[in-house]
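Retro notes - structure team

What went well: the batch runner handled both jobs without manual restarts.
What didn't: labels got mixed up in the shared folder, which is why I'm recording both outputs here explicitly, each with its sequence directly above its tokens.

Job 1
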Amino acid sequence: MSFFGELYLRSTLPFLSEAVTAREAEYLARAFADVPGPAPIVDLGCGHGRHASRLNASGPLAGRIIGLELDALSLSMRRPGFPAVQGDLRALPFRPASLAGAYAWYSTLFAFTDEEHVHILREVARVLRPGGRLVFQTVPYERLAESPGAAFQQTLPDGSVLEEQSRFDPVTGRDEGRRTLTLPTGRRLTASYSIRYYPLAELRRLLESTGFSIAWVHGGLEGESPARQSTDLIVGAGLQHG
């Protein structure tokens, strides 16, 4: 079973409150408010569209958001109010220099091999126009290195039981985990994942090698500087010479 599909939707939606979504959408609206239109801004790995639906409905980005998602189930469940296309991050279905911006949340860009991450970022650079911006959120490498092992079990509101074990390897920068969701019917959904987390210096080199330069790094949604206790690492990057 693919991790990013039914298992991911069923196991993450209960934790994505409207309050959290609103705060993340407000951050994104500020992050792109000065990026001139009318070219669209793409939500990379939009899932069911919790950010895209809000941003496209009102505010400075209204009418400019388009979603991109590979998983058909997520697209079938997406919230109304924004257009979306089915596609792969590794082969973006957009013309060169056709987008004003792109954003990705929850380490979406880094769930592949290191070589594929290079290719994905080059694809994003290809479809952005001069002056375009990329914004993405991930988890600080240092936070995972300090607490490399995790395991939990929780009963969700619908009665499903969620279990997960993971282990972060600071040498490879990979968090390897396995998640199991047992539904009230007894059906079990199980899949493994591997997500790459980069130290900031390494992340900077990766971005620069794929055509970007970092404009800012934040440790949270209020725009604070990153610190060892930060739960977020949010990066804004522009095209080099763009």
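Job 2
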Amino acid sequence: MPRLRVLLLLLAVLPLLAARPARVVSQTVGTDELLLALADPAQIAALSHISRDPAFSPVAAEARGHPALRDSDAESVLSFRPDLVLAASYTRPETLALLRRAGVRLVVLERFDTLEDVYANLRTLGRELGQGARAEALVARCRARVEALASRLGGVRPVRVLSASLHPFTSGGGTTFQDLCEHAGAVNVAAEAGLRGHAATPSEKLLLWNPEVLVTDSDAARLAQLPHYRVLPAFRQGRVVVLPGPLMSSVSHHRISAYETLARALHPERFP
């Protein structure tokens, strides 16, 4: 009888193991983050070409334990003989077209703006990798962290903030920065003014918006080179919060670390 139970267990498990992709290639940093969180190490054939660069990747140290693409193009991806390729809606269309033409199994993640989008992506990838239970466990841990932060921030007065970039745009509603503000006790003044997505910075309106704090992935010295930030009271009074670029722009569950970091900077009284 024990042998029969073992045999039945093997019969149940073997199809699942066989269905798991054995050579997964991630083409973007965002999918790197998800893949490293869910896959068995042996499933990972290669990560993106910038996966090991700490200027872009919050998982750079972990990524160094895996091969990396030479570039983000289809040729580099296919050179690793993948049975599953992970890409994103912001992957170059010509790259996606070539991968589809090659007949490789391709999963393109489309939405990243909110944490619910991240949870959906984790579950999608969990199914594709045969790691559904691992995905659900990670979602549960993420929810617990977010709920703990919300409890800590309960009743705070939201701080009015602006995403300040060296590039000529700011982040309005429907962006990862808006999601960051909603979880960190902040009001995004660009979204408040009606901007959607990543829009050109309306220099002439910044004084009118008068943010209390500037949030940037650069530093105050470099922002000082731009007159439209330099004249703002928040800048002149040193109210600038610098977040690591890989966290501020993360499209994965690692964005929760950005929530926590910004919340601590804006509401230090809630973090004794």
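One thing worth noting from job 2: Confidence is low (pLDDT under 50) at residues 6-18.
We'll revisit the folder naming next retro.
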